[in-house]
Amino acid sequence: MTELWEVAKLIRSKNAGPWELTIDIMFGNQQDYDRVAASNIANPDTYAGIYHLPSSDIRVFKHEMALALKVSLPRPTPAGGLQETDVFGGQFGSPLVHLEIEGENVLQGQSS
User: Fold this and answer.
1) How far apart are CA 59 and CA 73, in angstroms?
2) Which domain holds residue 64?
3) Phi/psi at 98 (nearest 5 deg)?
4) Which of 27, 72, 75, 97 could tie 59 with a disulfide, CB 3.0–4.6 Å?
5) What is the pLDDT of residues 55-108, one digit of tens each?
6) Which residues, including other chains, have CB under 8 Å from residue 109's CB and lie 6 or more apart?
7) Is a pLDDT exceeding 50 seen at residue 36?
8) Which alpha helices (H) appear in the chain, and where do they start and end?
9) For residue range 23-35, what is the model confidence (pLDDT) as tens digits?
10) Distance of alpha carbon 12 from alpha carbon 112, whole angstroms
11) Is the residue at 83 inside a domain?
12) Domain with 55 in it: what CATH number?
């Protein structure tokens, strides 16, 4: 099974204001983008499990022209608050690096 880091050119998270974080997953070619966009990585339920949030709070945007996926989710605590551990949001993408790409054979008419 392929892990996300093996096909993504960049996986980063960042602050998107005091209440939200954004995660960018960028690809170097159309084939890798299409493969991941058709997999569990483009499903809000994947992130709900990782970040312990309801899937209804998570938005996944597919930007085909940019060969990128963007994930927006609420911060665990407000930016700069007493419980804040990462005001810039730079560490929230790290749990995604080793995500397995499930359903990656969908483009070939197969499912895994």
Assistant:
1) 7
2) 4-77+88-106
3) -100, 15
4) 72
5) 999 999 999 999 999 999 998 876 777 777 777 777 888 889 999 998 755 444
6) none
7) yes
8) 30-37, 44-51
9) 999 999 999 999 9
10) 27
11) no
12) 3.30.980
